[in-house]
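Narrative of accomplishments. A recurring question from our advisory board has been how the design workflow behaves on a single, concrete structure rather than in aggregate. To address it, we present the structure tokens for one chain from the evaluation set, followed by the sequence designed for it. No filtering or post-editing was applied between the two.
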């Protein structure tokens, strides 16, 4: 991966039915959004007075998102430590059921017990789920096994995704069964709707190419970048900036580090004010890899309602919405 494109415990796992989770069910108007901090208090901020159907969001009280517990080649990246980013997965298509042969093509990020986020452009050629899996809890791409390989039962590509402009570049992957959440696999937090993420230190990580047109990395690599304003990003791209970068996108930049081919769908990660990792963006596209242009990411805050709508009865961990 170049530096440009590109704890929930067993007691909580017993909450397979949302009604079994303590304080887990919140009934929201469709035009409302949850604002939540670490702790049990949740306030609701109305974004519109229009009447709408109800949207259910389920929260478990016995797990926490965004916790990095590291033990002890994004471009100019370095290998990630074990448990450092326990929400990052790699998306694969299996040659056949039970086969050890597979094709890896994108990344995904766990956000709830059975939901991961990726990029829509990863699936523009093939939206079938028959052979679609996400592999988590690995530092080496060849560490796949039955325990960390999760079958995707439903794929939701944003209906307004435009493959020409790469706008609305976001997809939701729903698993057959909830994952087993622990130190080696836990969800990242989502951002509060008010977060803007301008001039914030951020992290990227993935198994993508270490140089443009180069081979992908077999190890999970990480790098640091800096988020920037959309106006600053547009200036970096020059005359094509306004066409490339819209309000529902965001940018991050570093002179030497960037995402690259194979990193698409992965997370742009920013620590919240409470110190919890939050997914600010989804790796979407760039020009080359670390070629002096920012990486462009789908802005998560623009799609919170859509994410909750498509997540169904998935269970999110306590404090799943974080202030920057």
């Amino acid at each position: 991966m170049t530096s440009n494109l590109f704890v929930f415990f067993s007691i909580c796992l017993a909450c397979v039915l949302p009604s079994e989770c303590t304080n887990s069910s919140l009934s929201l108007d469709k035009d409302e959004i949850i604002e939540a901090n670490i702790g049990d208090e949740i306030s609701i901020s109305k974004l519109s007075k229009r009447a709408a159907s109800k949207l259910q969001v389920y929260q478990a009280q016995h797990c926490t998102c965004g916790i990095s517990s590291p033990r002890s080649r994004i471009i100019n990246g370095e290998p990630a430590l074990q448990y450092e980013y326990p929400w990052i997965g790699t998306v694969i298509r299996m040659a056949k059921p039970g086969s050890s042969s597979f094709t890896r093509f994108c990344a995904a990020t766990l956000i709830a017990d059975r939901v991961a986020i990726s990029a829509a452009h990863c699936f523009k050629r093939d939206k079938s789920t028959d052979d679609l899996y996400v592999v988590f809890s690995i530092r080496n791409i060849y560490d796949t096994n039955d325990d960390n390989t999760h079958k995707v039962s439903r794929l939701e590509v944003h209906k307004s995704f435009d493959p020409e402009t790469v706008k609305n570049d976001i997809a939701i992957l729903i698993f057959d069964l909830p994952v087993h959440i622990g130190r080696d696999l836990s969800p990242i937090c989502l951002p509060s709707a008010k977060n803007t993420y301008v001039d914030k230190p951020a992290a990227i990580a993935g198994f993508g190419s270490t140089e443009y047109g180069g081979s992908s990395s077999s190890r999970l690599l990480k790098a640091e970048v800096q988020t920037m304003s959309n106006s600053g990003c547009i200036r970096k791209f020059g005359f094509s900036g306004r066409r490339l970068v819209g309000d529902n996108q965001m940018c991050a930049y570093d002179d030497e580090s960037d995402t690259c081919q194979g990193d698409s769908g992965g997370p742009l990660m920013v620590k919240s004010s409470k110190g919890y990792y939050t997914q600010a963006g989804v790796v979407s596209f760039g020009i080359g890899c670390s070629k002096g242009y920012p990486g462009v990411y789908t802005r998560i805050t623009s799609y919170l309602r859509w994410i909750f709508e498509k997540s169904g009865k998935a269970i999110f961990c306590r404090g799943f919405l974080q202030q920057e």
